[in-house]
Amino acid sequence: MALCNLCEEHEAVVWRRYSGVRLCKSCFTQSIEQNVKRTIRRHAMISKNDRIALGLSGGKDSVSIMHLLNQITENRPDIELIAITIDEGIKDYRNESIPIAEKNAKQLGIEHKIVSFKETYGYILDDLLVLTKSQKRRLKACAYCGVFRRSLLNRAARELGATKVVTGHNLDDDVQAILMNFMRSDIERESRLGPKTEPRHSKLVARVKPLREVPEREVALYALLNEIEVHLGECPYAGESFRQVIRNWLNEVEVKYPGTKYSILRGFDKLLPTLKEKFGHPPLQECKYCGEPTQYKVCKACELLQKLKT
Amino acid sequence: MEIPIKIKYFSEITETKVEEGSTVEDVVKKLGFNLETVVVKLNEKIVTEDAKVKTNDELTIIRVITGG
Hints:
The structure holds two protein chains of two kinds. By secondary structure, chain A is α/β, with parallel strands linked by helices. Chain A has helices spanning 25-42, 60-72, 94-108, 117-121, 125-134, 141-159, 171-183, 187-190, 216-225, 242-256, 260-279, 300-309, and strands at residues 14-16, 21-23, 51-55, 80-87, 111-116, 164-166, 196-197, 206-208, 285-286, 293-294. Chain A contains twelve helices and ten strands. Chain B has one helix at residues 24-30; strands spanning 2-9, 12-19, 38-42, 45-46, 58-63. Chain B is mainly beta. Chains A and B meet through helix 9 and helix 10 of A and strand 4 of B.
């Protein structure tokens, strides 16, 4: 039986090979809370009188950050939390996670709004993929889902008067994105990846990622140990994504060379100021169809929707 | 010498044999899982991967990292 290296009293439930430390349930839970608080403080993620919109899927990351933020802001009556769930319309997946999202929000007394692809774009994701396949122009599911989800989360947050959007992106998510952008040679996109995305348009809400320095496995462990109900199902379209290839590879490397994920993040954080300086970020304009902020005349969501009709 | 243990994955329980002195990590690898993607309970308690398994122990594998 291995004891916790901090309290030297209780049995360890986690062995962090990247630091060599073993922690018991209580010390581990505290360390996750400290990690999140440190990230929030370091990047000034929360300001006075913030109305924070949480992107809540019902999965381990979003549910855990909701519980953590609820606890962190417990003594801050000026901070308001609201949860937004995007229903993409993915059978046997999202319909299973939404009730869990609802249950957790209700348990914490957090206002919860569900918005759907169907009511906003006229299609559920499943149908959209069948349609584009029949048109012989189907892209990978994530190409549609990512664009619509990002845009809709921002729109819903803005309409609810939010001053910040919090997402449940964890260490693994960000490291995968860093590698994917690099492997696609999309360095401009790389320069927009960071702990905090400042709005470049009055219709954009600032986005922050307080779980960015917590490994994905530890987010799950936090939820399990603290008996937080989360959805652990897998998106039926995950297998077709480039991200899945990177995720598997990264996990193999991490097991052989513990600390690789943190190293990649630290290296990227050193590069980020230079990347931001190089690319600058010109102000955005409004999409001529939907009015949402975009780099070009037509936003990516409308571009995808237009293609369906031609 | 091999010892029998039980593996619980989702709600299904199967029996398998592992070398005496095996750790949770050895079993997880033998079953083809990556340690970064699972949390393991040994006889209903979450343990670190260097915990040793004994005859008739029940190992629960919780796959926590999927695609989503």
